[in-house]
Design goal:
The complex is a heterodimer of chains A (82) and B (193). By secondary structure, chain A is mainly α. Chain A contains four helices and no strands. In chain B, 39% of the residues lie in helices and 21% in strands. The chains are: A mainly alpha (82), B alpha+beta (193).
Chain lengths: 82, 193
């Protein structure tokens, strides 16, 4: 099978742009992905699948990090009790 | 006045001592002291000896990298540009070594690196040669599982190494350092070399 060439600079920039637009949409809709389906499709079409996975993980990480910074760390047992 | 000059002297002294401590720590790690055998983007064999006599800013990465490698390369090359603008400083050789030799052959590397700095060079090799080179710098490398297309990402340490003209690692910089900080640090090393 032919090896896929790495994305060129233009392709990288297009991918990152699509990702940023998708993320901006998520930001303005409280992370409701159902409100951003079109941008999600554009994002997936402009980026290699491996990059989509990588950026999805990154978004999750950034959200988790923000949560830690604003809410602080809640150990699992304490969160269960109320 | 005199107090200002005294304070400046103390600050420089503190910087110098911090740099000495760091150098000692890096030497103790024996970072990057092993030789390597790789090839540049024109297929010419290159070893450690080819780097002697120059300052080098070295980054390990791969061309299929989603964001980190282009960002770190931009930063590295920006630092080189900043240093080029300072009269009287020796030139810095920007260098990229792939951690993904299976896909990053000489041609692929050449295409990728063209977009950054005109003097940016790249090195690749066999899987064994690259493994040895990364190992010499204690750079962690781990290829992830391939997707149905055969595409994969390579998890790796994100570090930029500064090598002195004697070939030894004089400093290493992580993701959080800016291009300006890199340039300032390199300049400090050059001036105290």
């Amino acid at each position: 099978a032919a090896r896929m060439a790495a994305p060129t600079r233009e392709e990288r920039t297009a991918c990152w742009g699509a990702r940023d637009e998708f993320w901006q949409c998520l930001d303005s809709h409280g992370d409701d992905a159902s409100k951003c389906e079109k941008l999600r499709r554009v994002f997936e079409s402009r980026c290699p699948q491996q990059w989509v996975k990588h950026f999805d993980k990154r978004r999750d990480f950034l959200k988790y990090k923000k949560k830690l910074e604003t809410e602080g760390y809640i150990p699992p047992e304490a969160a269960g009790k109320s | 006045g005199l107090a200002g000059a005294g304070w400046l002297y103390l600050r420089r002294e503190k910087e110098r001592r911090r740099r000495q401590r760091r150098l000692r720590d890096l030497r103790a790690l024996a970072l990057g002291q092993g030789d390597f055998q790789l090839q540049d983007t024109s297929g010419t064999p290159r070893s450690r000896a080819d780097l002697l006599g120059r300052w080098v800013l070295l980054y390990f990465g791969f061309t299929h990298c989603p964001d980190v490698c282009p960002e770190e390369l931009e930063k590295l090359c920006r630092a080189v540009e900043l240093l080029e603008a300072v009269p009287g400083l020796p030139p810095v050789q920007p260098l990229f070594i792939t951690v993904d030799p299976a896909r990053d052959d000489a041609a692929a590397l050449g295409r990728y690196l063209r977009d950054f700095h005109p003097r940016l060079q790249g090195l690749t090799g066999t899987a064994e040669q690259v493994r040895a080179a990364a190992g010499a710098f204690r750079v962690y490398v781990s290829a992830g599982p391939p997707d149905p297309d055969g595409d994969y990402v390579v998890d790796h340490s994100v570090l930029t190494f500064l090598l002195g003209p004697d070939g030894l690692v004089r400093d290493c910089y992580g993701r959080s350092r800016t291009a300006e900080e890199l340039a300032k640090s390199v300049r400090g090393h050059m001036e105290s070399y």
